[in-house]
Known about the structure:
The protein is an alpha+beta fold. It is 34% helix and 15% strand. The N and C termini lie far apart (105 Å).
Amino acid sequence: MNCPNCESKQTRVxxxxxxxxxTIRYCRCLDCKHKFKTEERIVKYEDLKRRNTRLDEEKxxxxxxxxxxxxxxxxxxxxxxxxxxxxxxxxxxxxxSVIANRTWTDVEQEPETPNPIQRYSIKLPRYSAMQKKExxxxxxxxxxxxxGFVDYEESKDCVLN
Length: 161
């Protein structure tokens, strides 16, 4: 920080006082011994809102959407930009800057709503051929702690008491 008296960069902060919403720093110059104070105010984002602009966030989104559709259709970009500039009563360079995202960078394009047909379309699963594995019955019996399996035909002949 430069001294307001002699413009020297040789200054030191002697006392710092934090208050609600701002900070006061008492400083002194090492060259001319001048004492001065500075006040730092905390600036919130609401304080930085754009004032006196012809465009707002909604208009910026519309401009970008129209430019995107025109580009997809293959229309001439210059004519689209000129018509947008006339429609919103701004300069052509403003429209170009908005579309190129050099200005209004904090405004994001809203996600496109999906086509109703796409929203409810059902994607069928894809099946792939798998090799059939034959299980060894002896391994299953030992795994289940069973003595063995009886075929259905054999069980008809058996009579339970």
